[in-house]
């Protein structure tokens, strides 16, 4: 990937994570990267092309980080805390998860990008379900009505906390909700 292409992806991702997909233009990117607007079209002919590439890159990085954490020997509680930490990372700078931001404005996002966002969340739910399943088997997590239901609840809690913390300008709100979501999945004796 060219340096300019990477700079464009970085700038676009940052803007979308702060302001949303509908709130940025190629003129914003041209100014941020220091190139002319027509040069952006050389790398990304349409905003839809750029959006899809942003999601692909973000999802690949997110998945690689989850895989690395899992291979590092962390237990289920540590993996859930790590997962929540990925959502927390951008909050001090006013950034939300790229895919969550795009999901929140689905009607403004091209169909192919919406499908890529859906694949991101499906992969996340599959990963969380496996973590919960393994955590229950190891006695690290309490048996829930179902691991899938626990995974959906955890993902929803983390995402909701991320958006609310950003709206409040209070990262500690996210920290409290994430800690409560992890604690709710632990066996009663471990709480």
Automatic annotation (TrEMBL):
Location of the HTH tetR-type domain: 2-62
SUPFAM superfamilies assigned to the protein according to its UniProt record, in alphabetical order: Homeodomain-like (SSF46689), Tetracyclin repressor-like, C-terminal domain (SSF48498)
Transmembrane intervals: none
Molecular-function GO term, any one: DNA binding
Family matches, as Gene3D superfamilies: Tetracycline Repressor, domain 2
Keyword Nucleotide-binding: no
PROSITE patterns hit by this protein: HTH_TETR_2 (PS50977)
Binding region for DNA: 25-44
Keywords assigned: DNA-binding, Transcription, Transcription regulation
Protein name: TetR/AcrR family transcriptional regulator
Organism in which the protein naturally occurs: Streptomyces liangshanensis
């Amino acid at each position: 990937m060219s340096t300019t292409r990477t700079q464009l992806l970085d700038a676009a991702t940052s803007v979308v994570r702060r302001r949303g997909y509908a709130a940025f233009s190629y003129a914003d990117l041209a100014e941020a990267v220091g190139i002319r607007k027509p040069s952006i079209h050389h790398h990304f002919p349409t905003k839809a092309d750029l959006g899809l590439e942003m999601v692909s890159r973000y999802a690949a990085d997110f998945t690689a980080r989850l895989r690395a954490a899992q291979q590092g020997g962390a237990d289920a509680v540590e993996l859930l805390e790590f997962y929540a930490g990925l959502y927390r990372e951008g909050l001090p700078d006013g950034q939300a998860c790229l895919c969550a931001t795009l999901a929140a404005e689905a009607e403004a996002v091209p169909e192919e990008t919406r499908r890529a966002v859906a694949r991101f969340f499906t992969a996340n739910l599959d990963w969380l379900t496996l973590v919960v399943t393994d955590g229950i088997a190891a006695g690290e997590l309490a048996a829930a009505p179902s691991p899938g239901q626990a995974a959906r609840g955890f993902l929803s809690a983390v995402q909701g906390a991320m958006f609310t913390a950003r709206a409040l300008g209070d990262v500690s709100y996210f920290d409290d909700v994430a800690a409560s979501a992890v604690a709710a999945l632990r066996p009663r004796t471990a709480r």
